[in-house]
Specification:
heterodimer, A: alpha/beta, Helicase, Ruva Protein, domain 3, B: 642 residues, seven-stranded antiparallel beta sheet, six-stranded antiparallel beta sheet, 51% helix
């Protein structure tokens, strides 16, 4: 394989991270890297204190990308995220002060605490990859990834993201508690925030951009394409689901699968790749029937996947 | 623990050998080589646990061999192609995977092979192989039922012992019973078909004496008397000679055993018959009148052409007779006229009157016989088996008053009158006529056909057969009019021929007969042109094959697997077997398999295979070979861990 960047570099990234810093968070790390490589965004839904922020920080640290953080509250204004123009008395004109969103990796902590207005401003920026303030359009940096978190249990004073906006996230996943052994180790070792802040970058931003191109060029065979399409169709036919996956979801599924294949060191997508990211990519986009809104969407996706045969030949 | 599968595999090979070894010396080179190669391939594949030879390949491979030998089918030596095909089929089955079905086929083929070896050699070793086969097949069948329940079933050693014990018990118990029943059952004296012979009410078959007037009616019995295998004869000459009554007291005719010596001279054409009498307590042997050459050692010959068994045997017998049927037997020397003109002292006056009338009218024997015949023909006598005259003077009553009687009346009175007229004569008891069975080519004679006629000695000619019953006014109806061959009769004839062949070939088992049958089959086979038959059947055969292919294709569209599909299915098989990863219905991805299996061979297989397949391209030849190598090493790896 004649490539400008070897996927091993990225494999190294999250191997290093999960081995040395973020034990037990391989999956969320992998998904984050996939989101980064596809240019998508990731929503991590889990309880506080499970290392959501640390994962984002570590990812930024190891990739050497700039990192911005927004702690969402109900009084957070859109300009607090996007930035604003401030009059410079010495120079005699307004100059644009970019907000935290002008970073490669933006952590939107507890996104469901922000007002819908703020949420939609953020999501618009995520989708458009640029911010227009007072008639001036400011492009966002190229690897750009939003790492949003939300606390599913905290219901008071929160504004749940509408489905249409959930669709903007490539991946939605949880972290989960580490297993007993690991948790004891983590407790014994103490916090790793300091360690994470001293991380040495393992890849450059140029490499990431090159890798994104590589991911785009990963071969998607007809068989796997039909497999993806079958999954999409199955969600649209499922009894519990009101609205199945959109075409954008299908595109995202294919993109994420490509990134997953790239991370595995392949230049083609295998059905396994699709299977491995399907829940993370699809579950949050499903709109369930009224009586089923509390159903386990991940479980539904898993049943759909298990009902469709992987194309092996 | 012992795996049932390996046991049945070993048994299958041993059984195959039991069929192969006895046949081996009689095979030509090609089937011999095929047998050895097939056995070795089977053993080799069994050791590896991988079956490169698929059943369909084998089945396809047999077809040309079969066609070749079908064309080779030789009129003079039909056995060689047949045993060659048998051997090749056995070899092919031995070479392949031994599924339950194939194992059963091997057992059957082995049996056939062993049986066909007896075509060439009747060696006592055959029995050893046969016994061995019986035991082994019984054991293998029991084990196969276990294998059929679970392919990888294992049993503990004590359980296995019990299974083997009970499996062997079956042949052990059946063999002595078999030995007991086999000679007894088919050779029973009881007729298998009582169809033609309901239990008789009263037997009319001839007896020790002819005594007309002892009963008023005769019940006809359809009881079978004998069968005679011979070409069809003129119905009028079908006089079956049994015994001769040569002494009379005026009412009753009996046989005096010390018949005077006479020497018959047979000059006419003879008819050969093969007679199968039904077992009875009568010692007299039946033959077409008049027997010239009697081929039965135990038969005692009387000078008057009566043959008797030296003693009554319980078994069935059969004998060949050559008879001269024209009814006139010349004599070399003069006969004892006095003996054959013996009469009681007192005869009814009316008989004496009639006799003296004949004597005065006729000079010699011939004219006197003719005169008496005329008297009978013109006397208005009627033949009947009912409303008979009874009593002491029955013959006189019959002759002059009633004029109605059965053959006994006709013959007795005729003979009595002849003797009174000075013509030497005697009564012959036997049978007349019989139904010819076209299916079996034999005459079937029942007791109802029992008959008595007269033999008169005519000077210058010899003993001449005279049937007085035929002089009856209604003789035409009774004797000449042939019975219409009703459907029922034809059916009973067909049934009887079955019975006949059963008696012939099983009950009165005769090796020479068997050889003859075999020869006949052989000569019939010579009339068959195999290539012509084959040619006629080609369209049908082609149609059947096409239909079979079509059905097969419909049922399994995946009959023509691509290379990729083949290696994949083999790979999945191995993975499922050795790593117990369920790969059914594509539930697991290849890379998932690789990570679950955690085996370098599996990983490299998946890499190469998926690299081609998920690039939407075929496997290159190199890749294909590499994959096959990987599969081989995986397989050996699997057999090591298992």
């Amino acid at each position: 394989m004649n490539r400008s960047i070897h996927p091993h570099a990225f494999t190294n990234v999250f191997e290093t991270l999960s081995r040395d810093y973020l034990q037990g968070k391989d999956e969320v790390l992998r998904l984050s890297v996939i989101a980064l490589l596809v240019g998508g965004h990731i929503l991590v839904e889990d309880l506080p204190g499970l290392g959501k922020t640390t994962v984002a920080l570590a990812l930024a640290g190891v990739t050497g990308l700039s990192f911005g953080r927004v702690q969402c509250t109900s009084d957070l204004l859109p300009s607090d995220i996007t930035g604003l123009s401030i009059y410079n008395r010495e120079e005699g004109h307004f100059s644009f002060q970019p907000g935290p969103i002008f970073n490669n990796i933006v952590l939107l902590d507890e996104i469901n605490r922000a007002m819908p207005r703020t949420q939609s401003a953020m999501l618009e920026a995520m989708e458009e990859r640029r911010v227009t303030i007072e008639g001036v359009t400011h492009p966002l940096p190229d690897p750009f990834m939003v790492f949003a978190t939300q606390n599913p249990s905290d219901q008071s004073g929160t504004f749940l993201l509408p489905e249409s906006q959930l669709d903007r996230f490539l991946i939605c996943t949880g972290i989960g508690y580490p297993d007993e052994q690991l948790e004891r180790q983590i407790i014994a070792g103490g916090g790793i925030r300091e360690l994470v802040s001293n991380l040495v970058p393992l890849v450059t931003s140029a490499e990431i951009i090159a890798a994104k191109k590589e991911v785009h060029a990963v071969y998607l065979s007809d068989k796997v394409l039909s497999y993806i399409h079958n999954i999409i169709l199955a969600t649209r036919r499922h009894d519990l689901i009101l609205t199945g996956l959109s075409t954008r979801a299908a595109i995202n599924l294919a993109q994420a699968a490509k990134a997953s294949a790239f991370l595995c060191g392949r230049d083609y997508v295998a059905p396994d790749d699709v299977k491995s990211i399907a829940v993370a990519v699809c579950a949050h986009r499903l709109i369930m029937r009224n009586e089923m809104t509390n159903a386990d969407r991940g479980g539904v996706v898993r049943t759909i996947i298990s009902s469709i045969a992987l194309p092996l030949a | 623990m012992v795996a049932i599968r390996s046991l049945t595999a070993i048994l299958t090979y041993v059984i195959g050998l039991c069929g192969m070894i006895p046949l081996f010396p009689w095979l030509s080179a090609f089937p011999r080589v095929i047998l050895i190669v097939g056995l070795l391939i089977g053993l080799w594949q069994d050791r590896r646990g991988e079956w490169l030879l698929k059943p369909w390949m084998q089945n396809v491979a047999i077809v040309p061999v079969f066609i070749y030998y079908a064309l080779q089918f030789n009129r003079t030596n039909p056995a060689q192609p047949v045993i060659s095909v048998l051997a090749v089929m056995l070899a092919v089955r031995l070479s392949g995977e031994k599924s339950v079905r194939h194992s059963l086929q091997i057992y059957t083929l082995s049996m056939f092979c062993l049986a066909s070896s007896s075509l060439f050699d009747l060696n006592p070793v055959f029995l050893i192989y046969l016994g061995l086969l019986l035991f082994l097949v019984a054991l293998a069948l029991v084990l196969l039922t276990f294998q059929n329940q679970g392919h990888d079933m294992t049993v503990s050693k004590p359980d296995l012992k019990r299974i083997i014990f009970s499996a062997l018990l079956m042949p052990v118990l059946t063999v002595p019973l078999l030995l007991l029943f086999f000679p007894i059952m088919p050779r029973t004296q009881m007729p298998l078909w009582h169809f033609l012979s309901p239990p008789p009410t009263r037997i009319t078959g001839y007896s020790d004496a002819v005594e007309p007037g002892s009963q008023s009616s005769i019940a006809e019995s359809r009881s079978l008397a004998f069968r005679a295998e011979m070409p069809r004869q003129v119905q009028k000459q079908l006089y079956w000679r049994g015994t001769v009554f040569n002494w009379t007291d005026g009412n009753k005719w009996t046989r005096v055993n010390k018949a005077p010596t006479e020497q018959a001279e047979f000059t006419g054409q003879t008819v050969r018959q093969l007679i199968y009498p039904e077992p009875s307590a009568v010692r007299t042997l039946i033959a077409l009148d008049r027997p010239a050459v009697f081929a039965l050692q135990r038969a005692l010959r009387s000078p008057d052409g009566v043959f008797e068994l030296s003693r009554i045997t319980s078994g069935r017998l059969s004998y060949t007779v050559d008879s001269q049927t024209n009814g006139v037997i010349a004599q070399r020397n003069a006969i004892n006229r006095r003996f054959y003109t013996q009469l009681p002292d007192l005869l009814p006056s009316r008989i004496n009157d009639l006799a003296s009338e004949i004597i005065s009218s006729g000079e010699d024997d011939r004219t006197r016989v003719a005169l008496l015949e005329n008297y009978f023909r013109n006397g208005g006598y009627r033949y009947s088996t009912v409303d008979l005259v009874t009593g002491n003077r029955a013959l006189e009553q019959f002759l002059f008053n009633k004029k109605q009687g059965n053959c006994e009346f006709f013959a007795s009175s005729f003979a009595l009158l002849l003797r009174a007229a000075g013509v030497p004569c005697r009564l012959v008891g036997g049978y007349l006529g019989g139904e010819y069975n076209d299916f079996g080519g034999y005459y079937l004679v029942t007791d109802a056909k029992a008959h008595v006629w007269v033999e008169a000695y005519i000077e210058g000619s010899g003993w001449e057969r005279i049937d007085p019953s035929s002089f009856a006014a209604n003789a035409g109806e009774v004797w000449v009019a042939s019975r219409s061959r009703s459907l029922f009769l034809r059916f009973s004839m067909a049934l009887d021929s079955l019975n006949y062949f059963w008696n012939r070939s099983v009950i009165s088992y005769d090796f020479e007969q068997q050889v003859n049958i075999a020869r006949q089959v052989g000569s019939r086979l010579q009339g068959i042109n195999p290539s012509k038959i084959l040619l006629n059947f080609v369209p049908y055969l082609a149609g059947i094959i096409l239909l079979a292919i079509l059905l097969f294709a419909v049922r399994r569209t995946s009959i023509f697997h691509t290379r990729e599909q083949r290696v994949l299915s083999r790979f999945l098989e191995i993975v499922e077997r050795d790593f117990s990863i369920s790969t059914a219905e594509g539930g697991v991805g290849l890379f998932e398999i690789a990570s679950l299996a955690d085996n370098s061979h599996v990983s490299s297989f998946v890499e190469i295979y998926a690299g081609a397949v998920y690039h939407d391209r075929r496997l290159t030849d190199d890749e294909y070979l590499t994959l096959k190598h990987i599969l081989l090493s995986l397989n050996s790896f699997g057999s090591k861990i298992s």
